[in-house]
Automatic annotation (TrEMBL):
Transmembrane portions of the chain: 97-118, 130-154, 174-194, 214-235, 270-290, 302-324, 331-349, 355-377, 397-419, 439-462
Function recorded in the entry: Lipid transporter that specifically mediates export of sphingosine-1-phosphate in red blood cells and platelets. Sphingosine-1-phosphate is a signaling sphingolipid and its export from red blood cells into in the plasma is required for red blood cell morphology. Sphingosine-1-phosphate export from platelets is required for platelet aggregation and thrombus formation. Mediates the export of different sphingosine-1-phosphate (S1P) species, including S1P(d18:0) (sphinganine 1-phosphate), S1P (d18:1) (sphing-4-enine 1-phosphate) and S1P (d18:2) (sphinga-4E,14Z-dienine-1-phosphate).
Alphabetized GO MF terms: sphingolipid transporter activity; symporter activity
Matches recorded under PANTHER family: MAJOR FACILITATOR SUPERFAMILY DOMAIN-CONTAINING PROTEIN, SPHINGOSINE-1-PHOSPHATE TRANSPORTER MFSD2B
Cellular component aspect of the GO annotation: plasma membrane
Subcellular location as annotated: Cell membrane
Protein family membership: Belongs to the major facilitator superfamily.
Membrane topology per record: Multi-pass membrane protein
Taxonomic lineage of the native organism: Eukaryota, Metazoa, Chordata, Craniata, Vertebrata
Catalytic activity of the protein: sphinga-4E,14Z-dienine-1-phosphate(in) = sphinga-4E,14Z-dienine-1-phosphate(out); sphing-4-enine 1-phosphate(in) = sphing-4-enine 1-phosphate(out); sphinganine 1-phosphate(in) = sphinganine 1-phosphate(out)
Record SUPFAM superfamilies: MFS general substrate transporter
InterPro entries per UniProt: MFS_2, MFS_trans_sf
Protein name per the record: Sphingosine-1-phosphate transporter MFSD2B
Keywords: Cell membrane, Lipid transport, Membrane, Transmembrane, Transmembrane helix, Transport
Length: 486
């Protein structure tokens, strides 16, 4: 007898475990796959967009800072809007959250594709990329908010939710690895030591004639991950609902719910601490390639260092999940500190062996910094529900407002950092940069992320942790969540 087709098996398994606290392997796997495309795209953007804008599109550094800041602010502003609209949306045959994910998929793929397109005009390129980056970030938000809020509709069991989160983070790390690897390998011919000859003056411009075509191909490959992964998410994951329990009404409005969530102390502490930590990770990622290209002799090792960071992060995520369960979430946060001395070491001693050690340790720290907030957020939501006993929609408010604040902090950090490059005299497309630019890049990959990480960890360690509900309370919360959000 032939085995059942894989999509049918996924749907059947999803239906079988929907009434219990246990999540099947296939459901966790498909849930994790849904987060891959945003991470693939975000990884390519984090490591290569700034380099593309400066050295291929040849936009002045001041305009690049506006592109990055505008895009991040657009994504941040879309978070409360997404939470508001999702909070007011009705359940369909596919659920309440899934239609938002599916509806955004084709548009976000197109926005990403044209983000790497080099228009024939040069005068308005800054406006072109600002518009497309703002559009991409807004669409990515409307994709990510319902997807992450879906965690609360998978199961009422906190341990199973943590396990599903670990699957998601592991596969998102794989997506991050795929994005940087695929994009980096395709565009590697556009950058490297061969583009600069020894007899070139610092101000001369050298751009590979194939750079535009290479970036165009890389964009098409990454954009295809959106429809593929969204289809697998739809086939394998179904939102929980409890048809035996009647709905309890519309619950709190968005603004009233937002006012309550931001006054919840465990949530406020979590958000403020990861404002600094996530901004530090974004600065480290964004300026690593520029540092290797212009502030050291590591331009031929860029792809190897990026792969080392991401492979280390992917492989260490299951280990961090075990540490999380064994020693607690707050103790696991100390793993983020590992990045601090090594980031300073790379800025001080930019040698090849040191660079790869730093890349490996940075991957370990990045993994726990990405896993921890998404593992702690469900506990904060449960703690809030136990104290206030409010109705539907608050889960999306928690997730959307968290992403809003972290994106806003990242926008400010990247915008100010890129402006500092402009003040230092960065020349777009130039083969060599001035000594002031070199020093600025060393500060941006050393001192800046170090200080932000230490501030964030100090905030996170202060005060009590949220209470994880008992099994009985978990089932009660799960039943309420299933019909109020369904």
């Amino acid at each position: 007898q032939l085995p059942e087709p894989w999509p049918h098996l996924l749907i059947k398994t999803s239906l079988e475990d929907s009434g219990t606290g246990h999540l099947s392997f296939y459901r966790k796997l498909c849930y994790g796959i849904g987060g891959v495309p945003n991470q693939v795209a975000s990884s390519a953007i984090a490591f290569y967009l700034q380099l593309f804008l400066l050295d291929v599109a040849q936009i002045p550094a001041a305009q690049v800072s506006l592109v990055l800041f505008g895009g991040k602010v657009s994504g941040a502003a879309a978070d409360p809007l997404a939470g508001f609209l999702i909070n007011r949306s009705r359940r369909t045959g596919s659920g309440r959250l899934m239609p938002w994910v599916l509806g955004c998929t084709p548009f976000i793929a197109l926005a990403y594709f044209f983000l790497w397109f080099l228009p024939p005009f040069s005068a308005l390129r800054g406006l072109w990329y600002t518009t497309l980056y703002c559009l991409f970030q807004a669409l990515a938000t409307f994709f990510q908010v319902p997807y992450t809020a879906l965690t609360m509709l998978l199961t009422p069991n906190p341990k199973e939710r943590d396990s599903a989160t670990a699957y998601r983070m592991t596969l998102e790390m794989v997506g991050t690895l795929m994005g940087a690897t695929v994009h980096g390998l395709i565009v590697s011919g556009a950058h490297g030591s061969h583009r600069c000859k020894e007899d070139m003056l610092p101000g001369e411009v050298a751009v590979s004639p194939n750079a535009t075509r290479l970036y165009f191909i890389a964009a098409a490959v990454v954009a295809l991950t959106y429809p593929v992964c969204s289809t697998l998410l739809y086939l394998g994951v179904k939102e929980q609902s409890d048809p035996s329990t009647p709905a309890s009404g519309q619950g709190l409005g968005f603004l009233a719910g937002l006012g309550l969530t931001v006054r919840h102390r465990p949530y406020l502490k979590l958000v403020i601490s990861f404002l600094f930590i996530s901004a530090a990770v974004q600065v480290e990622q964004s300026y690593l390639v520029l540092f290797c290209t212009h502030a050291s002799q590591l331009q031929d090792h860029v792809q190897g260092m990026v792969l080392t960071i991401l492979v280390s992060a992917v492989l260490s995520t299951p280990m961090w999940e075990w540490v999380l369960q064994r020693f607690g979430k707050r103790m696991s946060a100390l793993g983020i500190c590992a990045m601090v001395p090594f980031a300073i070491l790379l800025a001080a001693v930019p040698m090849v062996p040191v660079a790869y050690v730093v890349a490996f340790v940075s991957g370990l720290s990045i993994a726990v910094s990405l896993l921890l907030p998404w593992s702690m957020l469900p506990d904060v939501v449960d703690d809030f529900q136990l104290q206030h006993q409010h109705g539907p929609g608050l889960e999306t408010i928690f997730y959307s407002s968290y992403v809003f604040f972290t994106k806003l902090s990242g926008a400010g950090a990247l915008g100010i950092s890129t402006l500092s490059l402009d003040f230092a005299g960065y020349e777009s497309g130039a083969c060599r940069q001035s000594e002031q630019v070199v020093v600025t890049l060393k500060v941006l990959i050393g001192a800046v992320p170090t200080s932000m990480i230490l501030i964030g960890l100090c905030i996170l360690m202060v005060g009590p942790t949220p209470k994880v509900p008992s099994r009985a309370n978990s089932r009660s919360l799960g039943r309420r969540t299933s019909y109020t959000l369904a």
